[in-house]
Specification:
Distance between the termini: 40 Å
Number of helices: 0
Helix content: under 10%
Structural class: mainly beta
Length: 119
């Protein structure tokens, strides 16, 4: 079965960095788009970053452009989110997501990892 397991969250001071990892199993990782979402307290979940199956195409929400980098290692079945220059507004639970590349395009979520940016 599909499994997505995030790690790397924690408490960091404003301006600091964290790298999140999402280890995938149960599907052909190199054929799947991958994404990171986040949900801050009291807010709706939002798409943070997206990466194509080969890693050749990425996209980010405006608020993290220039600070966050999504990448993947298809040999390790892992997708990463490098987060630099963290701000208090980046505090959220970050979750890894993928979907089947064929109908019915079922989506899958990891359990999430909490990132807290605070001094």
């Amino acid at each position: 079965q599909v499994q997505l397991v995030e790690s790397g969250g924690g408490l960091v001071q404003p301006g600091g960095s964290l790298r999140l990892s999402c280890a995938a199993s149960g599907f052909t990782f190199s054929s799947h788009n991958m994404a990171w979402y986040r949900q801050a307290p009291g807010k709706e979940r939002e798409l943070v970053a997206y990466i194509s199956p080969t890693g050749g195409s990425t996209n980010y929400i405006d608020s993290v452009k220039g600070r966050f980098t999504i990448s993947r290692d298809n040999a390790k079945n892992t997708v990463y989110l490098q987060m630099n220059s963290l701000k208090r507004d980046d505090t959220a639970v970050y979750s890894c997501w993928t979907a089947q590349p064929y109908p019915p395009y079922q989506g899958y979520w990891g359990q999430g990892t909490r990132v807290t940016v605070s001094s």
